[in-house]
Amino acid sequence: MKTRLIDGACVRRGSANVYADLGLPDADKLRIKTGLVIKIRKAIATLGLTQQAAAARMGLTQPKVSDMMRGDFSNLSERKRMDCLTRLGYDIEITIRPGKAEVGCLVVV
User: Fold this and answer.
1) Per the domain annotation, does 41 fall within a domain?
2) Helix, coil or strand: residue 12
3) pLDDT digit of tens for each residue in the chain (109 aa)?
4) Per-residue DSSP letters for 47-91?
5) Most buried of 7, 38, 81, 89 (most Cβ within 10 A)?
6) By 3-state DSSP, what share of the chain in percent is helix, strand and coil, each rounded to 5?
């Protein structure tokens, strides 16, 4: 990656995965988990739901929705996050195809 000097600081353009850029283990899994929560938060905002209304619609408690909105989603599995999205009116499509590299990747669009 190209590094530039901006206002005395070295700046390097990151990849599409900030977790990998930080060298965290399981970076792809973290990116997927975070991506699902971002979609849920956007869906709640788009629908104009309160946390209480969103909780009822998603089958969660309001405190769990509050935790998610604050970035703590460790108490929700990936499957439950996908369930939340479908309950908010979103379709989830999982496509499996041969990868372009030796090791495939996970993507949330």
Assistant:
1) yes
2) strand
3) 577 888 888 887 777 777 777 888 887 777 777 888 989 999 999 999 999 999 999 999 999 999 999 988 888 888 999 999 999 999 988 878 887 888 777 666 6
4) HT--HHHHHHHHT--HHHHHHHHTT--TTS-HHHHHHHHHHTT--
5) 81
6) 45, 5, 45
Q: Which helix (H) or strand (E) holds 97?
A: none
106 phi-psi bin (left φ>0, alpha ψ -120 to 50, beta other)? beta
pLDDT of residue 108: 65
Residue 9 forms part of a structural domain? no
φ and ψ at residue 12, rounded to 5 degrees = -125, 130
- CA-nearest of 92, 84, 76, 69 to 33 is 76
Q: Which of 93, 94, 75 is nearest to 37 (CA)?
A: 75
Letter for the amino acid at 83? D
Domain of residue 76, CATH code: 1.10.260.40
Task: Compute the C-alpha angle 56/57/59, nearest 5°.
Answer: 65
